[in-house]
Amino acid sequence: MPCSNLPADLIYQVLADYPVTISGSATPISIKSIPVCELEESPDNNTPTEKVKLIFTTLDTLPTSTPLAFLISTVNNKHYIIGTHERLYPTIKCSSSTSKPDGEAASVKYEVSFTARKALIPYTV
């Protein structure tokens, strides 16, 4: 989902315990491997800061020319957003791998990282 489609001031809404709702539609990504989402919390000038890293492999090519936000659903039916309407946007790194000789398709591995006061933002569907 483009970051411009997200509501403004998401981080402040979460910090104020205001429920976040996403009304726009997102483009699903077909995942080839089990995705990993890691959250690291640390103090920065006495202010808690979070850094989230999402790693997944897909056959799709993402349009990285525009800032993207990622909507995540867990097996526990919890939903999270990585990204905000305002800058700083998530950083997206990608690396391609060629197919294996046994006929497996070529894939792209993406690593999305985002650092903010609240980097993994819970939302309701």
Description:
The protein contains 1 helix and 7 strands. It is mainly beta. The chain has a 4-stranded antiparallel beta sheet, with no helix packed on it. A 3-stranded antiparallel beta sheet has the order 3-4-7. The radius of gyration is 15 Å and the shape is globular. The model has no long low-confidence stretch (mean pLDDT about 90).
Keywords, please?
125 residues, mainly beta, 4-stranded antiparallel β-sheet, 3-stranded antiparallel β-sheet, 7 strands, globular
As residue ranges, the low-confidence spans are none
Oligomer: single chain
Percentage of residues assigned to helices: under 10%
Shape: globular
In total, the number of strands is 7
Question: What gyration radius follows from the Cα positions, in whole Å?
Answer: 15 Å
**Biggest sheet statistics:** 4 strands, antiparallel
Provide a count of the helices: 1
Q: Mean pLDDT, nearest integer?
A: 90
Strands in their spatial order, largest beta sheet: 1-2-6-5
Structural class: mainly beta
Query: Percent of residues in beta strands?
Result: 35-45%
What's the order of the H and E elements? HEEEEEEE
Tell me the distance between the termini.
15 Å
Short description:
The chain is mainly β and 125 residues long. It is built from 1 helix and 7 strands, in the order H-E-E-E-E-E-E-E.
Draw up the topology in text.
Layout: H1 10-15, E1 36-44, E2 47-58, E3 70-73, E4 79-82, E5 91-97, E6 107-116, E7 121-122
Antiparallel strand pairs: 1-2, 2-6, 3-4, 4-7, 5-6
